[in-house]
Amino acid sequence: MLRAAVCVSGGGTNLQAILDSIDVGAVTNTEIVAVISNNRGAKALARAESRGILGLVVSPKDYPDREAFNEAFTEKLCGLAPDLIVLAGFLVKIPPQLVTRFGNRIVNIHPSLIPSFCGVGYYGLKVHEKVLERGVKITGATVHFVNEGMDEGPIISQQAVRVEEDDTPETLQRRVMEQAEWILLPKAIDDIANGRLAVVDGKVRRV
Ligand code: GRF
Q1: Is cis: bond before 115, omega within 30 of 0?
Q2: Residues 171-196: what's their mean pLDDT?
Protein backbone atom coordinates (compact mmCIF):
# COMPACT_ATOMS: atom_id res chain seq x y z
CA MET A 1 0.00 0.00 0.00
CA LEU A 2 1.51 3.32 -1.11
CA ARG A 3 1.53 5.90 1.70
CA ALA A 4 0.93 9.29 0.07
CA ALA A 5 1.21 12.68 1.77
CA VAL A 6 -0.54 15.46 -0.17
CA CYS A 7 0.62 19.10 0.06
CA VAL A 8 -1.94 21.81 -0.71
CA SER A 9 -2.38 25.57 -0.49
CA GLY A 10 -5.84 26.33 -1.79
CA GLY A 11 -9.19 24.92 -2.87
CA GLY A 12 -8.07 21.30 -2.97
CA THR A 13 -9.92 20.24 -6.13
CA ASN A 14 -6.92 18.13 -7.15
CA LEU A 15 -6.93 16.53 -3.69
CA GLN A 16 -10.65 15.87 -4.14
CA ALA A 17 -10.01 14.24 -7.51
CA ILE A 18 -7.49 11.92 -5.85
CA LEU A 19 -9.88 11.03 -3.01
CA ASP A 20 -12.77 10.42 -5.41
CA SER A 21 -10.54 8.26 -7.63
CA ILE A 22 -9.59 6.14 -4.63
CA ASP A 23 -13.28 5.79 -3.71
CA VAL A 24 -14.26 4.47 -7.15
CA GLY A 25 -11.21 2.22 -7.45
CA ALA A 26 -9.53 4.21 -10.23
CA VAL A 27 -6.57 4.62 -7.88
CA THR A 28 -5.60 1.44 -6.07
CA ASN A 29 -3.03 0.36 -3.53
CA THR A 30 -2.88 3.91 -2.15
CA GLU A 31 -3.57 5.50 1.24
CA ILE A 32 -3.56 9.28 1.84
CA VAL A 33 -1.83 9.43 5.22
CA ALA A 34 -1.96 13.22 5.65
CA VAL A 35 -2.74 16.53 3.97
CA ILE A 36 -0.25 19.31 4.70
CA SER A 37 -0.85 22.99 3.95
CA ASN A 38 1.02 26.26 4.41
CA ASN A 39 -2.39 27.96 4.56
CA ARG A 40 -4.48 27.26 7.65
CA GLY A 41 -7.55 28.56 5.79
CA ALA A 42 -7.12 26.23 2.81
CA LYS A 43 -10.40 24.59 1.81
CA ALA A 44 -8.31 21.52 1.00
CA LEU A 45 -7.83 21.00 4.75
CA ALA A 46 -11.59 20.92 5.22
CA ARG A 47 -11.84 18.31 2.45
CA ALA A 48 -9.29 16.16 4.31
CA GLU A 49 -11.00 16.63 7.67
CA SER A 50 -14.36 15.59 6.22
CA ARG A 51 -12.71 12.31 5.25
CA GLY A 52 -11.00 11.77 8.61
CA ILE A 53 -7.57 12.36 7.07
CA LEU A 54 -4.91 14.00 9.23
CA GLY A 55 -4.49 17.67 8.33
CA LEU A 56 -1.36 19.61 9.23
CA VAL A 57 -0.41 23.28 8.84
CA VAL A 58 3.26 24.13 8.36
CA SER A 59 3.71 27.71 7.21
CA PRO A 60 6.85 29.78 6.52
CA LYS A 61 5.05 32.56 8.44
CA ASP A 62 5.48 30.54 11.63
CA TYR A 63 9.29 30.43 11.38
CA PRO A 64 11.99 33.09 11.79
CA ASP A 65 13.48 32.36 8.36
CA ARG A 66 13.20 30.03 5.37
CA GLU A 67 15.91 27.70 6.62
CA ALA A 68 14.02 27.11 9.85
CA PHE A 69 10.83 26.42 7.86
CA ASN A 70 12.69 24.07 5.52
CA GLU A 71 14.02 22.07 8.46
CA ALA A 72 10.61 21.89 10.17
CA PHE A 73 8.76 21.02 6.96
CA THR A 74 11.25 18.29 6.11
CA GLU A 75 11.07 16.83 9.60
CA LYS A 76 7.26 16.89 9.58
CA LEU A 77 7.05 15.17 6.19
CA CYS A 78 9.67 12.56 7.02
CA GLY A 79 7.87 11.86 10.29
CA LEU A 80 4.83 10.77 8.26
CA ALA A 81 6.96 8.11 6.53
CA PRO A 82 5.34 8.64 3.13
CA ASP A 83 6.32 6.61 0.08
CA LEU A 84 5.20 9.49 -2.13
CA ILE A 85 4.74 13.23 -1.63
CA VAL A 86 2.08 14.77 -3.90
CA LEU A 87 2.10 18.53 -4.55
CA ALA A 88 -1.50 19.35 -5.44
CA GLY A 89 -1.51 23.11 -5.82
CA PHE A 90 1.23 23.66 -3.24
CA LEU A 91 2.65 27.16 -3.59
CA VAL A 92 5.73 26.90 -1.39
CA LYS A 93 9.15 25.88 -2.76
CA ILE A 94 10.04 22.38 -1.58
CA PRO A 95 13.07 22.36 0.73
CA PRO A 96 16.15 21.11 -1.16
CA GLN A 97 16.90 18.65 1.66
CA LEU A 98 13.47 17.07 1.11
CA VAL A 99 14.09 16.76 -2.64
CA THR A 100 17.42 15.11 -1.88
CA ARG A 101 15.81 12.60 0.49
CA PHE A 102 12.80 11.88 -1.74
CA GLY A 103 14.39 11.97 -5.21
CA ASN A 104 11.73 10.90 -7.75
CA ARG A 105 9.23 10.29 -4.97
CA ILE A 106 7.72 13.79 -5.11
CA VAL A 107 5.22 14.59 -7.88
CA ASN A 108 3.70 17.94 -8.88
CA ILE A 109 0.78 18.97 -11.06
CA HIS A 110 1.40 22.10 -13.13
CA PRO A 111 -1.39 23.76 -15.16
CA SER A 112 0.48 24.09 -18.47
CA LEU A 113 2.33 21.95 -21.01
CA ILE A 114 5.84 22.19 -19.53
CA PRO A 115 8.26 23.67 -20.67
CA SER A 116 5.75 26.36 -21.69
CA PHE A 117 4.42 28.79 -19.09
CA CYS A 118 6.28 27.39 -16.10
CA GLY A 119 9.02 28.36 -13.67
CA VAL A 120 9.25 31.25 -11.26
CA GLY A 121 6.07 33.35 -11.17
CA TYR A 122 3.96 30.82 -13.11
CA TYR A 123 1.37 29.38 -10.73
CA GLY A 124 -2.39 29.11 -10.41
CA LEU A 125 -4.43 31.66 -12.40
CA LYS A 126 -1.30 33.54 -13.52
CA VAL A 127 -0.44 30.65 -15.82
CA HIS A 128 -3.75 30.96 -17.67
CA GLU A 129 -3.49 34.74 -17.85
CA LYS A 130 -0.14 34.38 -19.63
CA VAL A 131 -1.53 31.68 -21.94
CA LEU A 132 -4.37 33.99 -23.04
CA GLU A 133 -2.00 36.97 -23.30
CA ARG A 134 0.27 34.99 -25.67
CA GLY A 135 -2.67 33.73 -27.70
CA VAL A 136 -1.70 30.06 -27.82
CA LYS A 137 -4.41 27.72 -29.11
CA ILE A 138 -3.49 24.66 -27.06
CA THR A 139 -2.55 24.52 -23.40
CA GLY A 140 -2.94 21.74 -20.84
CA ALA A 141 -1.39 20.28 -17.71
CA THR A 142 1.70 18.31 -16.75
CA VAL A 143 2.51 15.90 -13.94
CA HIS A 144 6.23 15.65 -13.23
CA PHE A 145 8.67 14.44 -10.62
CA VAL A 146 10.08 17.28 -8.54
CA ASN A 147 13.79 18.00 -8.61
CA GLU A 148 15.80 20.92 -7.28
CA GLY A 149 14.57 23.19 -10.06
CA MET A 150 11.15 24.82 -10.51
CA ASP A 151 8.91 22.67 -12.74
CA GLU A 152 12.03 21.05 -14.26
CA GLY A 153 11.82 17.43 -13.09
CA PRO A 154 11.17 14.37 -15.31
CA ILE A 155 7.76 14.59 -16.98
CA ILE A 156 5.35 11.78 -16.10
CA SER A 157 2.32 12.73 -18.20
CA GLN A 158 0.68 15.58 -20.08
CA GLN A 159 -2.77 16.33 -21.46
CA ALA A 160 -3.57 18.98 -24.07
CA VAL A 161 -6.58 21.25 -23.69
CA ARG A 162 -8.02 23.60 -26.34
CA VAL A 163 -8.09 27.34 -25.64
CA GLU A 164 -11.44 28.86 -26.69
CA GLU A 165 -11.65 32.37 -28.16
CA ASP A 166 -13.99 33.57 -25.43
CA ASP A 167 -11.96 32.12 -22.58
CA THR A 168 -11.20 34.10 -19.46
CA PRO A 169 -8.40 32.95 -17.14
CA GLU A 170 -11.07 31.48 -14.91
CA THR A 171 -12.91 29.52 -17.63
CA LEU A 172 -9.61 28.24 -19.00
CA GLN A 173 -8.38 27.21 -15.53
CA ARG A 174 -11.57 25.27 -14.96
CA ARG A 175 -11.33 23.46 -18.30
CA VAL A 176 -7.66 22.57 -17.68
CA MET A 177 -8.62 21.22 -14.27
CA GLU A 178 -11.59 19.20 -15.59
CA GLN A 179 -9.99 17.88 -18.78
CA ALA A 180 -6.42 17.46 -17.58
CA GLU A 181 -5.41 17.95 -13.94
CA TRP A 182 -8.12 15.92 -12.28
CA ILE A 183 -7.39 13.03 -14.67
CA LEU A 184 -3.60 13.12 -14.87
CA LEU A 185 -2.73 13.38 -11.19
CA PRO A 186 -4.80 10.42 -9.93
CA LYS A 187 -3.56 8.33 -12.87
CA ALA A 188 0.05 9.15 -12.08
CA ILE A 189 -0.45 8.17 -8.44
CA ASP A 190 -2.08 4.89 -9.48
CA ASP A 191 0.81 4.16 -11.87
CA ILE A 192 3.38 4.86 -9.15
CA ALA A 193 1.44 2.89 -6.53
CA ASN A 194 1.38 -0.11 -8.86
CA GLY A 195 4.99 0.08 -10.01
CA ARG A 196 4.32 1.04 -13.63
CA LEU A 197 6.84 3.87 -13.91
CA ALA A 198 10.63 4.14 -13.84
CA VAL A 199 13.03 7.03 -14.45
CA VAL A 200 15.73 6.04 -16.96
CA ASP A 201 18.38 8.60 -17.93
CA GLY A 202 16.19 11.37 -16.58
CA LYS A 203 13.14 10.30 -18.60
CA VAL A 204 10.04 8.60 -17.24
CA ARG A 205 9.36 5.22 -18.84
CA ARG A 206 6.43 2.81 -18.38
CA VAL A 207 7.61 -0.58 -17.20
C1 GRF B 1 -4.34 24.05 -9.84
O2 GRF B 1 -4.60 24.86 -10.96
C3 GRF B 1 -3.00 23.41 -10.00
O4 GRF B 1 -2.67 23.11 -11.33
C5 GRF B 1 -2.08 24.47 -9.52
O6 GRF B 1 -2.76 25.11 -8.44
C7 GRF B 1 -4.14 24.90 -8.58
C8 GRF B 1 -4.60 24.17 -7.35
O9 GRF B 1 -5.94 23.98 -7.38
N10 GRF B 1 -0.83 23.89 -9.10
P11 GRF B 1 -6.61 23.07 -6.23
O12 GRF B 1 -6.13 23.60 -4.89
O13 GRF B 1 -6.17 21.66 -6.46
O14 GRF B 1 -8.07 23.29 -6.46
Answers
A1: yes
A2: 98
